[in-house]
Amino acid sequence: MPKYVYDFTEGNRDLKDLLGGKGANLAEMTNLGLPVPPGFTITTEACNTYLETGDEPTELRDEVSEHLGALEKEMGRKLGQPDDPLLVSVRSGAKFSMPGMMETVLNIGLNDESVQGLAKQAGSERFAWDSYRRLIQMFGKTVLDIDGDHFEEALEAAKQAKGTDSDLDLDENDLRALVDTFKGIVRDQAGREFPTDPREQMDFAVRAVFDSWNAPRAILYRRQERIPADLGTAVNVVAMVFGNLGMDSGTGVAFTRDPGSGQQGIYGDYLQNAQGEDVVAGVRNTLPLEQLEEIDKPAFDQLLEIMKTLEDHYRDLCDIEFTIERNKLWMLQTRVGKRTAGAAFRIATQLIDQGLIDIDEAVSRVTGDQLAQLMFPRFDADADKEQIAKGMNASPGAAVGKAVFDSDRAEQMANSGEAVILVRRETNPDDLNGMIAAQGVLTSRGGKTSHAAVVARGMGKTCVCGAEELDVDLKNRKFTARDGTVVEEGDVISIDGTSGAVYLGEVPVQPSEVVQYFEGEIDPDSDEASDLVKAVHRVISHADEKRQLKVRANADTPEDSERARRFGAQGIGLCRTEHMFLGERRQHVERLILAEGDDERHAALDALEPLQREDFVGIFTAMDGLPVTVRLLDPPLHEFLPDLTDLSVKVSLAEAGVGADKGGSDDVERDGKLLDAVRRLHEANPMLGLRGVRLGLVVPGLFGMQVKAIAEAAAQLKAEGKDPRVEIMVPLVGAVQELENIRDEARGILAEVQESTGQDLGALVGTMIEVPRAALTAGQIAEAAEFFSFGTNDLTQMGWGFSRDDVEAAFFSRYLELGIFGVSPFESLDREGVGRLVRIATEEGRAARPDLHVGVCGEHGGDPDSIHFFAEVGLDYVSCSPFRVPVARLEAGRAAIVGAGSDSR
Amino acid sequence: MPKYVYDFTEGNRDLKDLLGGKGANLAEMTNLGLPVPPGFTITTEACNTYLETGDEPTELRDEVSEHLGALEKEMGRKLGQPDDPLLVSVRSGAKFSMPGMMETVLNIGLNDESVQGLAKQAGSERFAWDSYRRLIQMFGKTVLDIDGDHFEEALEAAKQAKGTDSDLDLDENDLRALVDTFKGIVRDQAGREFPTDPREQMDFAVRAVFDSWNAPRAILYRRQERIPADLGTAVNVVAMVFGNLGMDSGTGVAFTRDPGSGQQGIYGDYLQNAQGEDVVAGVRNTLPLEQLEEIDKPAFDQLLEIMKTLEDHYRDLCDIEFTIERNKLWMLQTRVGKRTAGAAFRIATQLIDQGLIDIDEAVSRVTGDQLAQLMFPRFDADADKEQIAKGMNASPGAAVGKAVFDSDRAEQMANSGEAVILVRRETNPDDLNGMIAAQGVLTSRGGKTSHAAVVARGMGKTCVCGAEELDVDLKNRKFTARDGTVVEEGDVISIDGTSGAVYLGEVPVQPSEVVQYFEGEIDPDSDEASDLVKAVHRVISHADEKRQLKVRANADTPEDSERARRFGAQGIGLCRTEHMFLGERRQHVERLILAEGDDERHAALDALEPLQREDFVGIFTAMDGLPVTVRLLDPPLHEFLPDLTDLSVKVSLAEAGVGADKGGSDDVERDGKLLDAVRRLHEANPMLGLRGVRLGLVVPGLFGMQVKAIAEAAAQLKAEGKDPRVEIMVPLVGAVQELENIRDEARGILAEVQESTGQDLGALVGTMIEVPRAALTAGQIAEAAEFFSFGTNDLTQMGWGFSRDDVEAAFFSRYLELGIFGVSPFESLDREGVGRLVRIATEEGRAARPDLHVGVCGEHGGDPDSIHFFAEVGLDYVSCSPFRVPVARLEAGRAAIVGAGSDSR
Q1: Exposed, middle or buried, A191 (CB in 10 Å: 0-12/13-18/19+)?
Q2: Are A363 and A904 in contact (CB under 8 A)?
Q3: Which residues of A touch B656 (CB under 8 A)?
Q4: For chain A, is the Cβ count within 10 Å smaller at the N or the C terminus?
Q5: Coil, strand, or helix at residue B236?
Q6: B597 versus A440: which is more confidently predicted?
Q7: Which residues, in sequence order, are CB contacts of B781 under 8 Å at separation 6+?
Q8: Whether the Cβ atoms of residue A437 and residue A414 lie closer than 8 Å to each other
Q9: Taking CB atoms and an 8 Å cut-off, how many pairs form between chains A and B?
Q10: d(Cα B706, Cα B726) in Å, to the nearest integer?
């Protein structure tokens, strides 16, 4: 039979699952001999049984009676005892802190008799009646689900009648009358009397705390914070102590060091003659904690000593809630305190230096998300700003520049040294040059998984997307905000990718010193390096030592490759080749598609080949000596052509002799021909259509041209004495036969180039595993593949059967709301479904080919939780955007330290 | 060390894998004591080693020498012995017969010396030189890869010179000259001399037979016939016997019973003074086998005796090749003979009656494909026909009717009793009423997986699709054939869904008596029942007794349900509800989509509910007492709206004041509003978009309305004393949470209806398993599902990552050509990939819920091979189109008889 109730003397901090964070830490402090009011904790198991069955477990009542009896004995008073009542608080306390989300009821044990006893005890009639009215109010709201406004209105009326707006001015008689009024509210609203039996009050309150686990706000909070829904909450029943018994009493909060900077010192607030709720309600201004020294030196000294004890004991920053009741200090709560990203790094290394933790522990205490936060520039918080719109915080950072409405113009202006913000309704692959050139990207449409958002995040470029309040007029190169503000091309705007805010004019920006460090602009060993940079350096260096996972980058250009290398990438895990078909090269692709016969097709391919070769020369040079995985063309060809609907409308209008685009008859003919091709290539579901290896098998010479360009580029570098390490990756393979076809063709071309150049290229041929069937037949596929790289984006799309493009607009928010996902499976890998495919493919691929090299190149490669999963499965590397490389290095190190089955928190 | 060569005395008919069909049967006949010319077989293993390594296994030469030595000893002559030569034939013989696909070389052993010996042996110079010239010709073509025309032309020239067109008129001198000419051709074309060493001739020929396994025509044939590519061929080396030594010699083929009808008797052909090739070449007309009795009574009697021996031994129809050399009968080949579908059923039951096989064996000897063939009506083969086009044979059968170009018109005309053929460019879901009304469907676009083809097959309706020679002019209600023939609305045409032919005018049709039997129109026990009907009845009854798999039907209407029931369906496995949103009801769907606010949405749903209820009442009534699985709405809502591109063009033209559709301003406004909705709902990949359970979770009330209609229909039947057995199926579930949401809503509604009507509905709630993730997390999903039904179409689409709509046009034919698929995975379940998901989900679903009911409702449910797989996995039922139900019953029975791991052949 489970034990459902633990006295504070029975628990400890390791029992958070069972006792919740608050209960476990109260027990820990009790056992440390700190002054904690006595009490006991009802376990999360009791809560979960209640939530599942709709009833408390039968044994719970007796266990509570037993522990309450012990508490009464210790306190020498009985709960609600008329002449000298024991009062208790009933507080929630889940494993993870959910501040303000769940219920608390104080002053339990008061009724018409015991209120007299409390008055006598406290020596104050006013205090006793005020406590009683608070109980009825909290109980009414929390337990009986009465709208709190009823009580507030009555309180307000009482104050008005008294001609005051402070409840401190209400005297015992006013409060006594208010108690009657409140009882009436309970009667009217809940259809029952306020329960006067103290034990009944307590049982009701416990049940209300249980129920609050499934309150909508709690569900929403858990979802946002990725807290599992099935943990349940514990309930703490604690003897009341009062900070509101006079000026020799009070309540406060404190941190053992500055949660903003990590500096040790005295950080906290204190409020005299008050209870915790008053601090939250902001009734009066709090005092800085230092002033407690003057008010109550013994209590202050004792508090400092306790803080030292706690920090040494917890070996971390702690935050504390305490109450002083008539000069007696009581500890009401402690926990490892939240801190800013910067403080997390500083504290972790400080604690090493203090000898409290070792470097392994320090690395485990900082997260990739914190490191990522430190890598974005920010707007100066104190600057004046004129916000004109708010969109989605699609890619964090702060960017300032002149608004520009098309990508070519953005590129021109950037080339002439101007900072620009690219503003579009939405972006598409053609905007890549503009996005690269711009400081940031602003769109009026599309969500966090829109093209703009995904590409910007990949580049580490600031992006605000879906700012629907903006009316973007591309033709006239301007946008209009809802308040009528018009921004024309060249006007300066500032966008905050961390908050989604759009500002008119220039807002001062602070660059990230952490990025400067990774870029090699700050030497971490020099004096100019800040504590933060030194801390980050120390942590990441150790993570690098520890990790088994290698980290590569996804990069398609020499520039990105160079940055990735500076950021610590150990190769390129994904070099996409589709951007090499855009811009000016689009004409060749169009020729390729419209080609009538082999000759025309070859001519188009021949024109593309040297251009591709040059691209590869650049990338291989940047990554000299490190592996570069080049993915052969993946997207369907019609992506390089105009949109079917747009073109159909254009052609129809031209044929009817109207429309904006009245070109010459040549144009009309060309458009008509193009439309035929677009129609022919149009697919109902392009994601499931003619792309990847299918394209390579259907369009003769296409993949061959790419392989030749790769081989010749590598041979050129070899001839120059460099060391290119080429891996050719075939996308979208579902059956080993597909791969065998392309592999044989590729090997033939590689052999030809090797022969004609005399260079031994040593290139590998492998495949992406991104189609579920590929994972399910990985044993076969490994026979033909020299490496695997998981394309977890497509694997997620096909494994779940939803397309990333359509998902967000259509139903994703609803799914998050319903709790079907705690987090988007495109953001963090779905371990149970998609992860199972990754596991199957890795195991069976390696069984067939023991030296198979296995990595991941989807966006999940840069996601902390996913990295821990990939480490557990035993992949060789993750590959992510250059900007995420340091994050991945850190998380890979943490995964190695924390061990298998871990997540990133 | 493997044994590469088997003497005929060493083999037997069970060694087909190793010796090929011909070799195994020659050995079997040898051991039966039948007169088989002596010889030996080189194994498929030798062939495969050769094909893999490019060289014969080293031991092969010695083994061949040994067996050749034995053969020479037995024959008392040596191969090519100048004075008295042994000649041999070298023939291919794979496990499965591949007629005409592979190589044969006869008369090996002849050269300038031994031709003299042969002349002496045979007593005919002419015969010897003719044999020699044939050797050079066959060897040149087959072994040396010389274009056969060179030899034909030389032969032609010789005949011209002689002034004849029969080669029988060429005398020994002409033939001697021709041998010289042929040698010259070899020299010129192959750049080498014709090899005169007999053993070299033989070794060359063996190698040529090996090589012919990978000849393009052989590869193509295997792909069509679904013969694995890695079997290899055996090679038979047999002492030559000659049917062309005079009128006392000859060659023939025979069947032990009529392969067309199954009747026992003497069926075959005989040709005097000829070799096998002459029969094939059609040099002279063959004689009916009966006439051999007059020509050579002893040989005839011996042949009949052998045929009886063979049939008793093989317990099946055998076909035979034989040669008579100077009154001596030689058996050259036998095998179990091919037969028509009808004969297969008749023979199988005849053999039971003859006591040769039992009923289990009889069932295993007929196939579902044969049964399916018997279920289609056919055109009278002898009728005059004027073919005007040929399309794809998309759904077999024969249909005659008036051409009609739109579905409503088709329905009208059908209602007034006219037979119509619906002719469209392509069909879409709106054509359903027309397709139902029509005798057959003809389209000018789309392949075998187009909408028209899939739906027609589902209905068992004749369909020819993609008849690209036809120019269909919908507006003017006519089509034009390539030859200029114009068919206008009302003109009669005939279409043959089995061949793809389109005929002008009426071609007489013969209905299927097997269908009449299944429809209950023919009593199999009555005298009017044909042998075929009796045979089918006997076989299918036994299959029903044996099978463990239940068979249900996919049916959406009462009519289909009734037919399915007559055809033996044990329930409905898939009742789609989307057709209930079409036709006149589309207006409500449009209202639903355009609804602004809850009230409008509810109004639209309220209008649909009673219509749906009536649909269900009809179907539940038809299936009274049997389970009906109703799938909640699956397709995305925009499928019920106009096409984005079409509507965009229409609106643009209307706005420009031009275009065909100049409606009033109301129309323009409505179209504009519609276009907004279409744009909003447009999805880049609708297959991966807002459909199925997602729709149910996003559009409040939609699934609820459907569940209510189902529940009320069931309650109504219950009140009438009927026994509806309802299973509510949630489509496209990927995560258990999705299902839980809908299940809870559905259970609530069911409870309400139960309460309000007082009827206990006992309805189940379950899910389709059609998303890979659902299969991978089936253990979780089974906790919330009372049944699983595999949607193998979507599971194939998502598992392979290609959409059925896009696949065929884009790359499927290329994939079949490259051998990446032997057969489309949409036709026959991919066991390794998609099948693995089926297996995982079944095992893990049942582990979580032992009484989980598991079926399949994709099109694979009617595919023989797939049915055997489903039986092996242990599903409870398959569900297929009503027309395929008998096929599924038969194959399920065969699977039970043949056992696990079987395929349908």
Answers
A1: exposed
A2: no
A3: 653, 656, 658-659
A4: N
A5: strand
A6: A440
A7: B733, B735, B736, B739, B767, B769, B774, B788, B845
A8: yes
A9: 202
A10: 13
Task: Give buried/exposed letters for A772-802 (b at 16+ CB in 10 A, else e).
Answer: bbbbbbbbbbbebbbbbbbbbbbbbbbbbbb
Nearest-CB residue to B686 (from A685, A698, A777): A685
Contacts of A810 in chain B (CB under 8 A): 683, 689-690, 694, 698
For residues A195 and A111, what is the distance between their CA atoms, to the nearest angstrom? 8
For A:765-784, CB contacts with B below 8 A are: 770-773, 776-777, 780
Please state the pTM of the whole predicted model: 0.84
Helix axes A644-655, A665-681, angle to 10 degrees: 140
A234: left (phi > 0), else alpha (psi -120 to 50), else beta?
A: beta
pLDDT tens per residue, range A811-832: 777 787 777 887 889 989 999 9
> Is any Cβ of chain B less than 8 angstroms from the Cβ of A274?
no
Q: How confident is the model at residue B373 (pLDDT cuts 50, 70, 90)?
A: confident
Q: What are phi and psi of B130, to 5 degrees?
A: -65, -40
Q: What is the pLDDT of residues B34-64, one digit of tens each?
A: 999 999 999 999 999 999 888 889 899 999 9
* pLDDT greater than 90 at residue A192: yes
Strands across the sheet containing B318-325: B287-288, B264-272, B250-257, B318-325, B328-336
Distance in Å, alpha carbon of B228 to nearest chain A alpha carbon: 14
Q: Do B799 and A805 touch (CB under 8 A)?
A: no
Rounded CA gap, A860 and A19, in Å? 34
- With an 8 Å Cβ cutoff, is B104 touching chain A? no
Flag if A658 and B659 touch (Cβ within 8 Å): no
CA distance A589 to chain B (A): 18
Tokens 């024969």 belong to B398
Strand-strand pairing, A39-42 and A5-7: antiparallel
**Distance from C-alpha of B782 to C-alpha of B631, rounded to nearest angstrom:** 17
Residue B593: C-alpha distances to residues B596, B665, B687, B699 (Å): 9, 22, 19, 9
Residues B298-344: tens digit of each pLDDT: 999 999 999 999 999 999 999 999 999 999 999 999 999 888 888 99
Residue A99: its H or E element: none
* Integer Cα distance of A229 and A745 in angstroms: 52
Q: At what angle do helices A172-190 and A148-162 cross, to 10 degrees?
A: 150
Which residues lie closer than 8 Å to A621 by C-beta, 6 or more apart? A558, A717, A722
Q: Please state whether B314 falls in left (phi above 0), alpha (psi between -120 and 50) or beta.
A: alpha
Q: What is the mean predicted confidence (pLDDT) over B205-230?
A: 83
Minimal Cβ distance to B833: which of A652, A777, A833: A777
Closest CA to A757 of A713, A705, A707: A713
CB proximity under 8 Å: B 730-759 to A: 732, 734-735, 737-738, 741
Q: Which two tokens stand for residue B674?
A: 């519609």
Per DSSP, chain A holds a count of helices (H) and strands (E) of 36, 31
Q: Which residues pair with A471 in a beta bridge?
A: A480
- The answer to whether residues B880 and B829 touch, using CB atoms and an 8 Å cutoff, is no
B54 CB burial (10 A radius; 0-12, 13-18, 19+):
exposed
Which among B552, B526, B549, B547 is positioned nearest to B537, based on CA atoms?
B526
What whole-number distance in Å separates Cα of residue A768 and Cα of residue A499?
36
Q: How far apart are CA A412 and CA A405, in angstroms?
A: 12
- A820 to chain B, any CB pair closer than 8 A? The answer is yes
Q: Are B168 and B184 in contact (CB under 8 A)?
A: no
The catalytic residue positions of B are 451, 857
Structure tokens belonging to residue B719: 């009140």
